[in-house]
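Researcher: Let's walk through a ligand-bound prediction step by step. First, I give you the protein sequence. Second, the SMILES string for nicotinamide-adenine-dinucleotide. Third, you return the three-dimensional complex as structure tokens. Ready?
Model: Ready.
Researcher: Here are steps one and two:
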Amino acid sequence: MKSLVTGGAGFIGSHLVDLLIEKGHDVIVLDALTYAGTKEHLDEAVKTGKCELVVGDISDRSLVFSLLKQHKVEFVYHLAAESHVDNSINDSSAFISTNINGTHALLTAAQEYLAQESPENFKFIHVSTDEVFGNLGPDDEPFTETTAYAPNSPYSASKAASDLLVRAWTRTYKFPAVITNCSNNYGSRQHKEKLIPTIIRNALAETPIPIYGTGGNVRDWLYVKDHCEGIYKASMTGRIGESYCFGGDCELSNLDLAHLICEMIDEFKAKEGNDFVSAASLISFVDDRKGHDWRYAVDYAKAKRELGFAPTPDFKDKLKETVDYYYKLISGVKKGSL
Ligand SMILES: NC(=O)c1ccc[n+]([C@@H]2O[C@H](COP(=O)([O-])OP(=O)(O)OC[C@H]3O[C@@H](n4cnc5c(N)ncnc54)[C@H](O)[C@@H]3O)[C@@H](O)[C@H]2O)c1
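Model: Step three, the predicted complex:
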């Protein structure tokens, strides 16, 4: 099977590439290698001879078309995006251009490919976020596929727009696409600007760990490899024109998450036997993010029923494995950059 993965040099994309190779796919990665993309994430995949990285922009319609045609692509996994909310608040331009216009370019290139080549079993998997649904109060029911879209940040608005384009393509042109909306991911290879790598990096450097507002904002954490399993299942058995929500059964406030990571870092440091500053003492509250959503939570019953998706239950073990990964990377034991 031939797959095109956009954004495959990023956090989730590179884990998905590894999974696809494991499942026997040949993978073309299309990635612009923005500040968020790292070629080294694909080192192992490239070594298998089953993965080729093409450095390019998803907005380059003719490049996308020629890749689809040349490689007779059967599955497009679309993950390329500008993905950091804070950046979208500072300057939204790249978010509009990649997340909306880029998705449009991909859709029209794939449409032309379908019209010219009539590939059998072609499917387009649009990977999106639960943030499109907006904000939950403490007692609200979790998001489902029927929750109304109400994005609150330029990032989530741009992702919502891309979801709606994909949806419209399935309705208007019978375009064979599936949409997935997932909660917050954690695991290795995440960019250092994101919450978990920031907590770990600052704890190790013994510098203040910034936590927005009161730290009470709640996120539903899903291990990145579980997300990739969900995306894969959606590509194999997801119904065309449907969307599927993925969640981790793991709601935590940012403050509780920070404390958990700090405990793990203290344990690592204690093993080294040197004096150290307790990481939790470095937690420092900073001005809240503008328009900060209070809570996200996902009901993944449809994905469980139709796709057999379920998160693995061992959050603390996976988090520890993640902390260990960054710990080794930062302390130079492991090769790579954060
Ligand atoms: N990280 C999460 O918690 C999370 C949760 C739910 C959904 N998502 C979605 O999953 C997808 C991947 O997220 P991530 O966290 O891996 O992001 P990331 O920022 O780590 O990776 C994005 C990748 O896209 C590439 N890219 C950016 N603009 C491009 C362009 N114009 N053309 C080609 N490549 C481009 C970057 O170089 C990078 O490799 C995104 O669509 C995001 O909205 C992420």
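Researcher: And what stands out?
Model: The pocket of nicotinamide-adenine-dinucleotide is lined by residues 6-7, 9-13, 30-34, 36-37, 57-59, 79-83, 98, 102, 127-129, 159, 182, 184-185, 191 (CB under 6 Å). The first strand starts at residue 2 and ends at 6.
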